[in-house]
Design goal:
Layout (H helix, E strand, L loop, with lengths): L1 E3 L9 E6 L3 H17 L6 E3 L6 E5 L3 E6 L1 H7 L1 H5 L1 H8 L1
Parallel strand pairs: 2-5
Antiparallel strand pairs: 1-2, 3-4, 4-5
């Protein structure tokens, strides 16, 4: 899922939220994304939580990627925190 946060958050313009089923899968996803971001010209890509975590964060400046195991994604519920409910609060 991709959330457009331009004008809503100061730390990024886009937030990507994805799910992996196992540590190894999430680690592979993080490594693949990091490589692709570097090849796309982004030099300050930081990865946190890789290597056996329920949640890996990839900070590429204007794009932040969250890779979760299903249970962690449900618990943190970033879609609700930064999704449509944010629009409703901001317009109210």
């Amino acid at each position: 899922m991709t959330l457009d946060l331009e004008g809503k958050a100061s730390f990024c313009d886009r937030m990507v939220i994805a799910t992996g089923l196992a540590d190894r899968q999430i680690t592979a996803m993080a490594e693949h994304l990091s490589e692709k971001l570097h090849k796309a010209g982004l030099r300050r890509v930081q990865v946190e939580g890789a290597g056996g975590a329920d949640w890996v964060l990839i900070d590429a400046g204007d794009i932040v990627v969250h890779l979760f195991k299903p249970e962690a994604r449900a618990m943190y519920a970033l879609e609700r925190m930064w999704g449509a409910e944010l629009d409703e609060v901001g317009s109210g």
